[in-house]
Amino acid sequence: MNIIKNPKNEAARKKFKIIGPIVLGVGIIFFLIAIINFFSCFGTGNFPNLFILAFFGLPLIGVGAVICRLGYMKQITGYVASQTTPVTSDSINYIIDNNKEAIKNVINNKKITCPYCNTLNDEGAKFCDNCGKELNKVCPNCNTLNDPNAKYCDNCGHRF
Ligand SMILES: [Zn+2]
Ligand SMILES: [Zn+2]
């Protein structure tokens, strides 16, 4: 049990790599013999004597698979990591490339909410699309856009 609990042990790993496939192979062979025997006896009235092998074969397949996994774990996870990482970043780049304009629009397209009717208007709009009221006060002194309710300019303090 000590060996199984420590799969990082290289010697144990080498043993697992040999034992795992053997156990797995024997299990599969047992299981196949049982299945073939079962179906060859099917309808003949003979009792499938070898079907008992399935009861040995199935646990052997399970144990063999576990031992294989312990033996090849490092390679499998390493392989999976090296295979999926570039694919993932590639597809993310692809998605970003395709949606760059859309993303840019979402980030840059600041909408102005009309304070009178809450309609969203494009940035730079002077009057509301919906109610026609003035959306921004342009400071006559410094040309800064101010809130329509502003009494003084945000930038220079000019009194409206
Ligand atoms: Zn409005
Ligand atoms: Zn101003």
How would you characterize the overall build of this protein?
The protein is mainly α. It folds into 2 domains: 2-108, no CATH class; 110-160, no CATH class. It has 3 helices and 4 strands, in the order αααββββ. Strands 1-2 form a two-stranded antiparallel sheet. The protein has a two-stranded antiparallel sheet with strand order 3-4. Helix 2 (10-41) crosses helix 3. The radius of gyration is 37 Å and the shape is elongated. Bound molecules: zinc ion (2 copies).
Descriptive key words:
6% strand; single chain; mainly alpha; 160 residues; binds zinc ion; two-stranded antiparallel sheet
Helix content: 55-70%
Q: For the report, how would you describe the main beta sheet? A: 2 strands, antiparallel
Ligand inventory reads: zinc ion
Class from secondary-structure proportions? mainly alpha
Global geometry:
elongated
Secondary-structure element string: HHHEEEE
**What is the C-alpha radius of gyration, as a whole number of Å?**
37 Å
What count of domains describes the coordinates? Answer: 2
Termini gap: 84 Å
Strand order of the main beta sheet, please?
1-2
Low-confidence stretches: none
Number of strands: 4
- Output the number of helix runs: 3
